[in-house]
Amino acid sequence: MAQTLLNIKNLKTSFRIKDDYYAAVDDVSLHVNENEVLAIVGESGCGKSALAFSLMGLHSKAKVDGEIIYKDINLLDITKREFDSIRGSELGMIFQDPLSALNPLSTIGKQIAEVIFLHNRKAPNKQLVDCIIKRDKKRTCYDTLKLTYHC
């Protein structure tokens, strides 16, 4: 039996307009097991991004209720520091706006190296550049970063 990786229960994300809160995400429940892929599709304005932002802990002014259980941790109950250690290293999001996702004035390799470096401070930046940009044949990026991936 596959292990549940993500379990969202009765998620409600509301935004305040004047004195009232209005739900952009209203009572959403779903689960994703290991090695599963979930696609969230819908019309413009239906709450897809609000759901993703809630999952990533990126709402600063929204009221988020319910449970977002990731690896047996309720992401709505952890501190910003704890969330920062998960976000980017275990959870990631590519934003809809390509200019906010990637910088056209920098190479893809440098941008990927920056993300990995910011979320794994153990690896010196020079090693990342050598590994990712120059594609160093003597060692793999996984060895350089001492990361373990389970595919």
Please characterize this protein's 3D structure.
- The chain has 151 residues and is an alpha+beta fold.
- The chain folds into 2 domains: 4-79, no CATH class; 102-145, no CATH class.
- The chain has 6 helices and 4 strands, in the order E-E-H-E-E-H-H-H-H-H.
- The chain has a 4-stranded antiparallel sheet with strand order 2-1-3-4.
- Helix 4 packs antiparallel against helix 5 (125-133).
- The chain is globular, with a radius of gyration of 18 Å.
Q: How many beta-strand elements?
A: 4
Order of helices and strands: EEHEEHHHHH
How far apart are the termini? Answer: 17 Å
Low-confidence stretches: 147-151
Shape: globular
How many distinct domains?
A: 2
Average residue-wise pLDDT:
80
Summarize the structure.
With about 150 residues, this protein is of the alpha+beta class.
Identify the notable features of this structure and list them briefly.
4-stranded antiparallel beta sheet; 6 helices; alpha+beta; 2 domains; disordered C terminus
Walk me through the topology:
Elements: E1 4-17, E2 20-33, H1 48-56, E3 62-70, E4 73-74, H2 80-86, H3 98-101, H4 108-119, H5 125-133, H6 141-145
Antiparallel strand pairs: 1-2, 1-3, 3-4
